Amino acid sequence: MSDTFKAILVSRDAEKKQSVAVTDLTEADLMEGDVTIAVEATTVNYKDGLAITGKAPVIRRWPLVPGIDLAGTVTASSHPDWRKGDQVILNGWGVGETHYGAFASRARVKGDWLVPLPEGMSAHDAMTIGTAGYTAMLCVMALERHGIVPDRGPVIVTGAAGGVGSVAVSILSGLGYHVIASTGRAAESSYLMDLGAAEVITRDELAQPARPLAKERWAGGVDAVGGQTLANVLSMTSYGGAVAACGMAGGMDLPASVAPFILRGVSLLGIDSVMAPKPIRLEAWRRLGTDLDSRKLAGLSTTIGFDGIIDAARDIVEGRIRGRVVVDM
């Protein structure tokens, strides 16, 4: 008989009522792929919280093992790039949405979806970073490509106490930027200052209906919120600035004016982490290995076991999670 392993399985019935259960699977139950991985660490992202709670239609195949991030060791491979014993990372590619994901002790995926674990980085470290941190680095790289360097002026990070925001604050401050952190949780101010924020402002400052153009306050930004917040960030971005948008925790709408784009030459840089091409992924993870202060990683995260995933998923959707949640598998 094949060895069984624990997995979280999200199902729904004929009336489309969703349920979540811990179950036993075997490798025969896994989906198609040319690389099998022993999952050593994963993480609970906001998207995973939405998938497990059913608060948004993240899952598009039923039943499904959620979990969009993993780090582990290859146990079998027919892909030319990978062999047994290789340490790998996976973010995105529909894993945890349409393909069985990380909330199981084993995963079978396409080798083209994997990147190598950077030298000197553990599986736990990689998941402290996870999709949130990898997305934050994609945002930083996009701002750099647009010429938003530290001497251009301050940069804002919205949703700063969340996963993307926490890593973005840490990376940007480490690179020498004057970081303004926006958060709805005033109690997290000292946490954000410890990560390197120069200023902390309340979410309320960006919550009112946006004026077409407001006073110029920053050269660029990383926005993980969307909605009214992003509209205000754009209206306050200085001439020739740019904002990298990567999240929609505050809504998918953008109640903004074209004025910042036309009258100030502001650019809105869309960041997609799920289907980003492999060369960009490799560069992002290389940069994470060099530009993210490993001493700050501990302060960014809390560690839980497999049994804590479902509760953490509910907490992250309710805004009760600071930084990153790493799951030691």
- Number of E-state strands: 15
Kindly provide the radius of gyration, computed on alpha-carbon positions and rounded to a whole number of angstroms. 20 Å
Counting helices, strands and paired strands, the structural category is alpha/beta
The rounded distance between the terminal residues' Cα atoms is 23 Å
What is the CATH third-level topology name of the largest domain?
Quinone Oxidoreductase, Chain A, domain 1
H/E series:
EEEHEEEEHEHEHEEHEHEHHEHE
Overall mean pLDDT: 96
The level-1 CATH class of the largest domain: Alpha Beta
Going by CATH, what is the homologous superfamily of the largest domain? Medium-chain alcohol dehydrogenases, catalytic domain
The number of helical segments is 9
Q: How many separate structural domains?
A: 2
Largest sheet: 7 strands, mixed
What are the SSEs and their pairings?
Layout: E1 5-12, E2 18-25, E3 35-43, H1 46-53, E4 69-77, E5 87-91, E6 106-109, E7 114-116, H2 123-145, E8 155-157, H3 163-174, E9 179-183, H4 189-195, E10 199-202, E11 218-223, H5 227-235, E12 237-245, H6 259-263, E13 267-270, H7 278-291, H8 294-300, E14 301-305, H9 309-317, E15 324-328
Parallel strand pairs: 8-9, 8-11, 9-10, 11-12, 12-13, 14-15
Antiparallel strand pairs: 1-2, 3-4, 3-6, 3-15, 4-5, 5-7
Helix pairs in contact: 1-9, 2-3, 2-7
